[in-house]
Structure to design on (506 residues):
DNA sequence: AATCTTATTGCACAATATGCATAAACGATT
DNA sequence: AATCGTTTATGCATATTGTGCAATAAGATT
């Protein structure tokens, strides 16, 4: 298969626009993407011409343009996994009280694409659209664990495992061992691997072909989610994920 | 300035994914874009690899992918014209009871990027993200009227003015005459030009440099918005648009 | 005013996208 | 189940197109 390189570059550039950095200038993008400033400049001009980007005031910096309103509206009405999952996710939230989220693969990262809020005042909060790593946090590890081995290795051996907290697994071998356990157990646990004080339990959702499609998480503050309830909670998450997988399989799309 | 052609093609392809046609296959896109099937096929493969698109079930058709969740979340928190406009729009809705919307330019079309719902049961309803023509409907005509003349002409003389209803102006000369009146009056009116039974009154919003930035509309069923109230309503819309323009000018971005 | 940083552009070269024709995959129909 | 008709993917040669470099221009900072 032959891929169009400049299109890939344009997407890499657009991917720099995140919740954390919604406004960017040429050099910043150039540094993040390892593309030369001339290339970035030209692609930005193209994206701006096509209204995917717009320039902010007089600063010359760029942010997402009006075209994305079109695409956001299409997403909103998209009948898909989210719709099938939502009722099950709400049942799970009512069972445990904690935040329930769905994460999907995006190259070597994951994106939260559906969330049901916690009942508690002190709670884990993950905005839909948030980008997260794959190698830490239970939601990422599950996606990684059930990926075909070659793809998995490429990601793990990519450009090093960034340390987010003291609990982040940064050794590829230890990580592989952990992923193997996750495949055996059918669920993953994270205690502050990505964010201090967070605890989450996560199970995989598969598509019709048995390929990993998403991960289903419950997450909350570590002081409320004790290991004593792990067996019970893990069972609940696994069953919910299985229910979604089944619904998903029966939906012809 | 040199623009990257394959990036433009990719955006044209992505632009085919709309509220009306959220799922598409190669030939359909090829017909809509006038790109050969091989080109479309290769760009689609690239967009799918980068998770901008995903294939639906076994049909092989494509729809928007997970990457757009990232961008949609960035839009949602984007501090911009919408935020400045919303309070003014709500005031205007409370004044007239009808739907109030904001439309922006996207190449030779417009996109609704903000909407405040009508108070009435029988009402005009425009979803955010909806794509509409420029040459008909007051919201489009205002954007067109205040565009720099060369750009305006390019659009009007583009590929013909499509007839939406019996009231659509399809003669370029008549349209130019109408646009001139709109510039003189500072507002536009449409009686069922794009959609039978709709009536709207629209005024322009400008940016810091005096360039047209958006159009502010009130729209409702024609039986409720009578010409008798036009002067009063037009005044209200113009004042609201002026207020937004002023706020916008004072915001340093 | 002078210096430093950042963004844009002209040009020549090399990389890369393209179209055509072909093959492969898929669906529909009998 | 086999055939036909669509639709999609790919190999290859060619020419278009994107690219880096260096220079310039535009802004920011001191």
């Amino acid at each position: 298969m032959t891929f169009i390189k400049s299109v890939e570059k344009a997407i890499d550039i657009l991917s720099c626009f995140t919740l954390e950095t919604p406004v960017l200038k040429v050099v910043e993008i150039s540094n993040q993407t390892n593309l030369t400033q001339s290339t970035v400049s030209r692609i930005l001009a193209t994206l701006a011409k096509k209204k995917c980007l717009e320039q902010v005031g007089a600063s010359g910096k760029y942010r997402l343009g009006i075209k994305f309103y079109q695409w956001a509206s299409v997403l909103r009405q998209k009948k898909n996994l989210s719709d099938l999952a939502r009722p099950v996710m709400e049942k799970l939230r009512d069972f445990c009280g904690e935040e329930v989220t769905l994460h999907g693969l995006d190259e070597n990262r994951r994106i939260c694409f559906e969330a049901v809020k916690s009942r508690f005042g002190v709670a884990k909060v993950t905005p839909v659209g948030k980008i997260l790593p794959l190698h830490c946090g239970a939601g990422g590890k599950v996606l990684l664990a059930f990926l075909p081995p070659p793809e998995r290795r490429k990601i793990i051996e990519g450009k090093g495992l960034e340390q987010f907290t003291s609990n982040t697994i940064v050794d590829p071998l230890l990580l592989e061992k952990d992923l193997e356990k996750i495949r055996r157990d059918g669920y993953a646990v994270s205690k502050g691997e990505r964010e201090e004080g967070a605890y989450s339990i996560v199970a995989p959702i598969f598509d019709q072909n048995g390929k990993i499609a998403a991960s289903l998480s419950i997450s909350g503050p570590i002081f409320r989610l004790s290991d004593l309830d792990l067996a019970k909670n893990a069972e609940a998450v696994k069953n919910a994920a299985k229910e979604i997988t089944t619904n998903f399989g029966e939906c012809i799309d």
